[in-house]
Amino acid sequence: MAVTPESRFDHHYSQLIQLFRECFEKQYQTCLVRGGAEPVYLPQSEGRLFSEIHFAHGFFSSALHECAHWMLAGEQRRRLEDFGYWYQPDGRNAEQQRLFEAVEVKPQAIEWMLSVAAGYRFRVSIDNLQGEATDPARFKQAVYQQVRHYLVQGLPGRAEQFRQALCEYYGTPRKLSLTQFDVETI
Fold first, then answer.
1. I need a surface site. Which of 29, 109, 172, 174 has the fewest CB within 10 A?
2. For 184, how many CA atoms within 13 A lie in the half-sphere containing its CB?
3. Residue 47: which residues within 8 A CB-CB, separation 6 or more?
């Protein structure tokens, strides 16, 4: 039987919560939280000791994805609920989908790189099952090109810190190469 990323490890969201805590809780007063149907970022407030990154349904991939959004957000954005971003839920028309994809390229590229570090299969998400049909090939290529950019320029600091923690925990290679990323598989 072939060993696939999914079969090599028992991927559970609790592992990500713990690793995130070790990497960021003290310095950034931020924690990763299993959420419900919709992910949300809630900044620290008078009634909330820590900023909270809520990911959907306990899904491992959702946790990685929401972490990627946080890792991209600057200090000002981390003070705003959902980083102050517009979000149109599933059911978007073609123009709304193009706008959605434009802001999703970088987080999905980081999610893909974190997935590789965790030995977990990445699948690009167009997150629009009820909306107007669009061809995902352009978006997949944009995510792939962003990964190529990060391979040359490096990941943002918090993303690289978490990637290294994932590599250590899951025993995956720390060195990245383009051969680990195939646009045809996402």
1. 174
2. 1
3. none
**What is the full per-residue pLDDT of the chain (186 aa) written as tens digits?**
233 444 456 899 999 999 999 999 999 999 999 999 889 999 999 999 999 999 999 999 999 999 999 999 999 999 999 999 877 777 888 888 888 899 999 999 999 999 999 999 999 998 766 667 777 899 999 999 999 999 999 999 999 999 999 999 999 999 999 999 999 999
> From CA 179, how far away is CA 44, in angstroms rounded?
40
- pTM exceeds 0.85, yes or no: yes
Nearest in space to 165 (alpha carbons), one of 12, 14, 18: 18
Transcribe 83-138 into DSSP letters: GG-----S---HHHHHHHHHHHHHHHHHHHHHHHHHT---------TTS----THH
